[in-house]
UniProtKB/TrEMBL annotation:
Protein name as annotated: S9 family peptidase
Record has Hydrolase as a keyword: yes
Gene Ontology molecular function terms on file: serine-type endopeptidase activity
The species this protein was found in: Halioglobus maricola
Keywords: Hydrolase, Protease, Serine protease
Length: 646
């Protein structure tokens, strides 16, 4: 086996093996694309005359304050790690937020007084995972899930923010699934919380914080469905949640807290997933979004009348987040379109719960000086797959980005993770970079198992059907062969997490039809992945991939794992990993890199010592993107196989 060339970057934090030096021209060509920013809504100021947004002016995203549309962003946090979830204190000025270290996902909860010069105070123990934080309506306590008890169970804790040392566990997880708080009742006595068993099975529970008694309100273990709590209604006698218990798509539902009462499916006439829901501060209205073939349609709903209407004339794209102002007069939105990165908008609300006025853009994120008018917007295509004529999906949806100029163009297939995620028409500076600088077409499929198309579609890859999703990539290669402006001899695959598994599996199945592959934090062996992923998420992943402790399932997982089929992978590979990844451990990358090298395959390997499940620090992302472009230049773009570097 050839000697491995080692190098480092970013003060030794990015370790690279067999990655060539990046030419200065690539750094120059990519600089503008790598300086695109976004500004996502995080919270309102107490007086509702300003917003807190997350944006990056250094290496990672931090919290900023904006006091008027188009106004300057005043930075409030100055950490080396990105600030994650943010919740503003009801009736107060404080902000609670979470942040981990080096991507290890052991998030801690901090309390920040935005108008104070004091450093944010850490409220949690500094070791366990603490997330899903929610304030009570009095602004005195927070509830959150934590692994503090044993490092693996997601229990529910409650803390008075002024007395963090007196935090107490109020619900002990009886199993390895996720339990997370959602909303306090107005009097603070009851806590609405959810149990996420798997991506297709969740339930809603109610906890009496005085007695400790709890009961299941929605979701049935005997008939798994996805039922996720939203919050109490304005009376406190009912609650809102989304559920697919009555059909293929998740709908918005209301139900009494009295046991035995039937739910009301409020959005039963919308044949799409309801994927974003926000309650106003007075609980009088809701905002929700329907995921209509990847695009978001926003609605406003009258809580008392349970009637809703669509919000028209907003940018066509994807709604990332939203939140009502404390005075219930405005709704902040984070909107992302195919041609613009995420920015924050504010919708003026009318007196009636479903009425509204103007939409005002508050942030104008930089796009590195690029001309957005030249950005390529994707086309939604549908292609048949291997079992479309025998009971399988009628077609597989995919987003198709086509470059300018005459083909045939090389093709990059970008596969999302999850697997229950969804490729949507998000803005991507990376895709625009590939289109412009490589002249490559980009195809982003939603293979079976993807979210957004109903629970039946999402379940089509479960358990022993796992490789059917890989065969959907084979069908996409067949579709590419029918397109005269696409070059079937120059196709690469790229994906992260579960998408990384799909890349490795596609390379094993279709090496003769692919020229290169990029595996980002991917699963190389399902058995070693399940044995080594963090304890607090292992049972949840078993619900999707299968239980490796069952002999029959273990044999199946061994048979389909790319690591055990590595001799079939006969193409160059770029493997990208984070040392601190708690989801897909670094060992998944190490073992497949070693196996590929053992059989003489070209492998470039990057491992960031200060990252976890994906690169969040700009300095690491920049070099990864530069290396990816160089990798495609060397292994994808050459038209003749004998032109490939040795």
């Amino acid at each position: 086996m050839a000697t491995v060339a080692h190098s480092t970057a970013n003060n030794g934090q990015l370790v690279m093996e067999d990655v060539p030096a990046i030419p200065a021209q690539i750094e120059t060509d990519l600089r503008r694309y790598q300086n695109v920013r976004s500004a996502s809504f995080r919270a309102w100021t107490p007086d509702a005359d300003g917003l807190y947004v997350s944006t990056r002016f250094g290496d990672v995203a931090q919290l900023h304050k904006v006091t008027r549309p188009g106004g300057a962003r005043t930075q409030l946090t100055f950490f080396d790690e990105p600030v994650r979830s943010v919740r503003n204190q009801p009736g107060g000025s404080a902000l609670a937020f979470t942040m981990d270290t080096g991507g290890n996902e052991n998030a801690q909860i901090y309390l920040l007084e935005p108008d104070s010069s004091d450093e944010p105070a850490m409220l949690t123990d500094g070791e366990s995972l603490n997330a899903s934080l929610v304030w009570d309506q009095a602004g005195e306590r927070i509830a959150y899930r934590s692994t503090r008890r044993n490092g693996s169970s997601n229990d529910i804790w409650v803390m008075e923010v002024g007395k963090p040392d007196e935090a107490r566990m109020v619900f002990e997880s009886p199993d390895g699934s996720y339990w997370l708080p959602v909303d306090f009742s107005a009097d603070g006595r009851f806590l609405l919380f959810s149990n996420l068993v798997s991506n297709g099975d969740s339930r809603v529970h109610l906890l009496d914080l005085e007695s400790g008694d709890h009961q299941r309100l929605a979701g049935d273990p005997a008939s798994p469905s996805r039922s996720d709590a939203v919050g109490f209604d304005e009376t406190g006698q009912g609650f809102w949640y989304t559920t697919d218990m009555a059909g293929d798509f998740r709908q918005l539902a209301w139900q009494s807290v009295k046991l035995g009462d039937e739910p009301i499916l409020v959005t039963a006439d919308i044949p799409w997933h309801i994927d974003r829901v926000s309650l106003s501060e007075d609980r009088g209205r809701l905002a929700f979004a329907a995921n209509e073939n990847g695009f978001s349609q926003l609605y406003l709903l009258d809580s008392a009348k349970k009637r809703y209407k669509p919000v028209k004339d907003i940018p066509i794209g994807v709604l990332i987040g939203m939140g009502f102002s404390p005075d219930n007069k405005h709704l902040a939105l984070t909107l992302n379109t195919p041609a613009t990165p995420s920015d924050t908008f504010v919708l003026e609300l009318g007196r009636k719960a479903t009425s509204y006025g103007d939409l005002t853009r508050w942030t104008f994120s930089e796009v590195g000086g690029l001309d957005t008018a030249g950005f390529v917007e994707p086309e939604l295509i549908q292609y048949p797959t291997f079992d479309s004529d025998s009971g399988g999906p009628e077609a597989i949806p995919a987003w198709f980005y086509k470059p300018a100029g005459k083909g045939p163009h090389p093709v990059i297939i970008s596969i999302h993770g999850g697997p229950e995620s969804q490729a949507r028409p998000y803005f991507s500076s990376t895709y625009q970079l590939w289109l412009e600088k490589l002249g490559a077409a980009v195809l982003v499929p939603n293979v079976r198992g993807s979210n957004g198309y109903g629970k039946h579609y999402m379940e089509l890859d479960n358990g022993f059907k796992r490789e059917d999703s890989v065969r959907d990539i084979g069908a996409l290669l067949d579709w590419i062969a029918t397109q005269g402006d696409l070059d079937t001899d120059r196709v690469a695959v790229l994906g992260g997490s579960y998408g990384g598994y799909m890349v490795l599996a596609s390379a094993a199945h279709y090496s003769d039809r692919l020229k290169a592959a990029v595996d980002i934090v991917g699963i190389s062996s399902f058995v070693t992945f399940l044995e080594n992923t963090q304890d607090y998420r292992r049972d949840h992943r078993r619900g999707e991939y299968g239980d490796e402790r069952d002999p029959q399932m273990r044999a199946h997982l061994e048979a389909i794992s790319p690591l055990n089929n590595v001799e079939k992978i006969q193409l160059p590979m770029l493997v990208v990993q984070g040392e601190n990844d708690p989801r897909v451990p670094v060992t998944e990358a190490i073992q497949v890199v070693a196996a590929l090298r053992e059989q003489g395959q070209p492998v470039w390997y990057m491992n960031a010592l200060n990252e976890g499940h994906g690169y969040r620090k700009k300095e690491n992302r920049d070099i990864y993107q530069q290396a990816t472009v160089l990798f495609f230049q060397q292994f994808l773009l050459p038209k003749e196989k004998n032109d490939e570097p040795k």
